[in-house]
Amino acid sequence: MEKLLLIDGNSIANRAFYALPLLSNTAGLHTNAVYGFTTMLLKLIEDEQPTHLLVAFDAGKITFRHQDYAAYKGGRAKTPPELSEQFPLLRELLSAMGIAQFELAGYEADDIIGTLAARGEAAEMNVLVVSGDKDLLQLASDRVKIALTRKGISEVELYDTSAIREKYGLTPRQIIDLKGLMGDNSDNIPGLPGVGEKTALKLLRQYGSVEEVLEHAADIKGKLGETVREHQEDARLSKRLATIFREVPLDMPWDHVRFTGLSTRSTEEMFRKLGFRTLLDKLGAKVAQTADESETANEGRFAPADADLPVVVADGETLAQLSGKLAAVSTVHVEVAGENPHDAQLIGMAFYTSEKVYYLPGDSLKLPEASAIRDWFGDGSREKSLFDSHKAEIALAWHGVKLSGVAFDALLAAYLLDPTESGLTLAGIAAKYGLPRLAEDDEVFGKGAKFAIPELSVLSKHLSRKAATIAKLRGILSQELVSHGMESLYYELEQPLVSVLSMMEMTGVKVDAEDLKQYGNELADGIKRLERQIHELAGVEFNINSPKQLGEILFDKLGLPVVKKTKTGYSTDAEVLEKLAPYHDIVALILHYRQLAKLQSTYVEGLLKEIRPQTGKVHTYFRQTIAATGRLSSQFPNLQNIPIRLEEGKKIRKVFKPSEPGWHILSADYSQIELRVLAHISQDEKLIEAFQNDMDIHTKTAMDVFGVSADQVDANMRRQAKAVNFGIVYGISDYGLAQNLNITRKEAAQFIEQYFEVFKGVRAYMENIVRQAKRDGYVTTLLARRRYLPDIHAANYNIRSFAERTAMNTPIQGTAADIIKLAMVKIAERMRKEAVKSRMLLQVHDELVFEVPEAELPLMRTLVPDLMGRALKLDVPLKVDVETGANWYEA
Q1: Average pLDDT over residues 763-784
Q2: Which end of the chain is more exposed for a tag (fewer CB within 10 A), N or C?
């Protein structure tokens, strides 16, 4: 059966541009849109095996639709030059690949695609249309399917007539009516004013088409009926504009779009010109080459892993066979079910060799015959590549198996290469780097309540393909780390940190359940007392947790000024209540009530559920690959969110105690680390001087900004200086500072200007880093950690401003995160050398928490701050405050 693949060139290139960081080749040409487009194109060719292929483009801004409606697409922002300059490159690349492309003046790519799809259907071809534009759903039929991109360009959602019916309750042709009623802001199609998708769908399910809706306008009640009656022409016009024209005059025989494979040599030349090294390797694996070319193309890039190597289920005799083959295994995939590895099911493992892949069910790891495999996992001299070695290490540890010798982690490497990409999966990473398609776990296991382990043949094949993919990725990602200058960050910091975190997580933290329950009783009493006081001030009993009832009390009964409204009534969120606090005593009580209620539900009840009966401890899970800044996050439970500002919140730390009698909790906290990093990065003379002389930085800032001596700085001056110091790190605006200090925006702007007049080095840094981000598309920390900023050129001011603030604070926040992680690695290494009994328990932002026996207190009080202070050499000292106590609160 012949298959016609039609690609919406403008749509996919546009999606790729915004989905990927702003890449450029050695000649300075921006290439991210071309790279993303090409990656998707190669994947489509591999998956779909089309016999005919065409990429359609828009020929220009003016089409026949402008004769009907001059303002068509009139609201669109101007195409960024960084994108428009890539279209000639894309067209040149398609020509080099031998792929047909077409555009026609006066028509859109949609019309060309619609016309060819109709012709393909008439010729009994199967047709696949690929776009990011939902308008093309109207083309779907028994033979025509529409693939819409989602999550950037890495995934597509496939629609046929039944899928459209399931999602919208419509036929494909009714998609035109849907657009006619609701319009489209992106194309400046008016539709009916105030009618969104929900209302439009309701009308279509009742009447069937725009024409029928207008025919029954008199039957439609209320404001909607008035809108329909008053804007009938808008609806008719919108439907005409939304209708894809399927009779474009194309003099194009089928041979013109016939696809028999890529033009190898010219494609290679273009990939080299564009700097697409990874795609060159992909091309080397997929097309015929000379022997010499093949040897050089793949040299050093990845192991010759085949996604479809024979799979052997290790059971009985084959288990012994695997044990004998472990010398040839350098890649293993450990499949763990569930988000929390502390109580997750160990499903199975796949061991990759160049000849075959061995699958071992999780339960088999406990068998006596698997002792050699358990020993292999724990042998630090045997290098292993994995995906998410951190999760695997914890899950294996709970099954009594130690994991050592991890030399490469594909998840960790991919995260470092682009930390802004959320939800990294092995399948997604493979697709990004042009490897053979790997099924997503949701496709194999199902999701949520539908999760189920498939039959052995499916499971073993899926895990084996994962292992083969990891083997391929090691070479690719390793080289990418080198080209990005990140090999030291990866091999000396992030990879060693995995074992440090696993050790802390398996150790756990002792939580006194009885003390926690007592604390919960105190909170409950406080909540009841506040509830009575609030009801007394209100003069009536009501549900304080009901926004509707609370709004009625505050605004209707007590007459407080309305700050903000929502669709359902008055807003009573925290921001609103803080603004209302000066107007009535009840507001402060409500805020306090909410704080205690959150402590009760989130921390008391939440922590009690997390205490493991077998250890009497909570075992958190630190995530290395979540935050774009490089900071660690904590889950199950989140121990980084333990409150510190409210005294009732601080008290919860009393329940965190040493796990051994007579031991102590030791807490070591970096003092103002981000401001010290800012001083080093900005090279601001006044900041450096203040820290080198161990001055109070907020007092020093107040002195310089207000032009007073140290003894003239009052509490309010220092408070304002502190707000600006920490605000500057986050690129604070005059509006944000005004909110923080409860001053006017004009006063805040003057304060910020005064600050920059004094700290000129900081201002220069802020300006330079934004310029650099706009030039490179990313910023880096002192240890070369990157963060890409695709919105730095956004036309929308708010989006662009956020990206600029991110450019300012990421090198500071990210370097601070790198420093404490470096300290953790160095401290753990020294503790092993010293053979101490003390244990590292937690990392909470800029703080490290340990449990220490009495005899080791003098050593640890010296060792910890010394190594933290020397973790990374800066031009200002890193100051560390150390305290000890019987519990975390006292420390």
Answers
A1: 94
A2: N
